[in-house]
Amino acid sequence: MLKTRIKEDIPKKEEIVVRISDDFVKLSDEEKTKLLDEYITEISENSDEYNFFASIMPEIKKHFGDKLRNTIRSNYADIIKKEEQLNINRNRFSVICFFKGKDFDKNDEIFSLFANLLSAGKDKIKLAIDYLIPYYENRPPYRKKTMLTTLLEDASKKVDSDYKKKIQKISSKLSLRMRKSIFDLFRFPKV
């Protein structure tokens, strides 16, 4: 099983990446999608596995054409909105981030996904915050800066202080003008 290979062969991860990449060679589009789904669910137990999955995405990406990437990205966006298993959704988000198109900042479907997650419960808000910068990099969503600012302001009311800090970093990277609470202005550091 793949999980035991990852844990046992930590120094040989590069070989595992090559083997996984080779699994996608000479498969039909349907078989590639099915195999990708299997890897997404198989490598999803902890942060080491999420990170490993994200690290193999550049190798896997080269086996998928633009049309198939668009289809998978669209399907995963729909699944993430409905799916409650956050560990598997982290891997799906990695796929979305690596399969993004040239005009990724203009993709309304992915912005809709982020808007949906930022308006949901605490866990989904955290998921969206973790993947906003990997997806948008330093380019805010096209013609949706104000909406994203409002969503992040609302989300910051629902999350803990660590995620509030992440939201502030996101707002500065994407040049968003977030409103500060009057209480934030007078907050003193703990001694």
Task: Provide an overview of this structure.
- The protein is mainly α.
- 69% of the residues lie in helices and 0% in strands.
- Helix 2 (13-23) crosses helix 4 (47-61).
- The radius of gyration is 18 Å and the shape is globular.
Strand content: under 5%
> Total helix count?
11
Helix content: 55-70%
Note the main sheet: none
Instruction: Outline the low-pLDDT stretches.
Output: none
Key phrases:
191 residues; mainly alpha
Strand-helix topology:
Blueprint: H1 2-8, H2 13-23, H3 29-42, H4 47-61, H5 66-82, H6 86-98, H7 108-118, H8 122-136, H9 145-156, H10 161-173, H11 182-185
Task: Describe what is shown at a glance.
This protein is mainly α.
